[in-house]
UniProtKB/TrEMBL annotation:
It comes from the Eukaryota. This is Uncharacterized protein.
Length: 243
């Protein structure tokens, strides 16, 4: 049985933050891991960390889109249609997605080798963690042949896009809690015109209200729940906790 690795959970701010702030914190943590791999006798091994946050409105684009002329044109069109939302090209995989108020963004920063995880198994763990979180609201989510987590083949409730460098993870999951879904009308999820975004409050309004009544920061509460489930899944991977 491998040594248990406790996941440190950091909710960056109790209020919404710019995308650039979350990205900067993520980059520092990733650099710490890479520095440790380069000079392990000098730089201590970092602690696996889950960053959670809630962004101001922003559309983010996958790394491949910045080199595609059609994607660049669509990015500029999007910026002109929704001027109040920022736009940013990221290093994650995937296509265009939206982040904003009412959405939990969760970025695990860890070394897949420490947990004996392949890329495929890691992505599946993020999917399973999201599905289990949604089960707490009485929602039966699932994965399909398309990326993300879905309530049906046409209703997407969470996006997943990760980046790996020397087995160090970054980026992760975005789960719609009480997000304004109209922002998704400007993009096409997974390149599927018939698909649409949904949220916890849209799919389970009474359960959301019941669980979040009196909760000062619902998105931080979602982050706490996501962190607890992810820790359980990582423990199980290393042979700790319940099977």
């Amino acid at each position: 049985m491998a040594t248990r690795r406790a996941l440190k959970h950091i909710h960056i701010s109790p209020t919404q933050i710019p995308y650039s702030t979350g990205a900067a914190v993520q980059d520092v943590l990733v650099k710490n891991y890479l520095d440790h791999k380069r000079v392990p006798d000098v730089v201590p091994r970092p602690v696996p960390t889950l960053l959670t946050m809630e962004f101001f409105s922003v559309y983010t684009f996958g790394r491949r889109q910045q080199h595609d002329e059609e994607s660049v044109r669509k990015i500029e069109e999007l910026k002109s249609k929704v001027p109040e939302a920022d736009g940013c090209v990221t290093m994650r995989g995937g296509q265009t997605t939206f982040h904003g108020p009412g959405q939990l963004v969760a970025y695990p920063i860890l070394d897949l080798k420490e947990f004996n995880l392949s890329t495929r198994c890691y992505v599946r763990m993020l999917e399973d963690t999201t599905i289990e979180l949604l089960e707490g609201f009485g929602l039966r989510a699932k994965v399909t042949e398309n990326t993300g987590v879905w309530l049906s083949h046409f209703e997407k409730i969470a996006s997943i896009g990760v980046h790996l460098r020397r087995y160090i993870t970054s980026h992760g999951v975005a789960i719609n809690g009480s997000t304004d879904l109209s922002y998704f009308d400007q993009i096409v999820a997974c390149g599927l015109p018939e698909s649409k975004a949904t949220s916890i409050i849209h799919a389970a309004p009474e359960e959301w209200k019941r669980q979040m009544v009196g909760v000062k920061n619902p998105i931080q509460e979602l982050g706490n729940r996501f962190a607890a489930i992810l820790q359980q899944n990582l423990d199980h991977r290393l042979g700790h906790g319940k099977a």
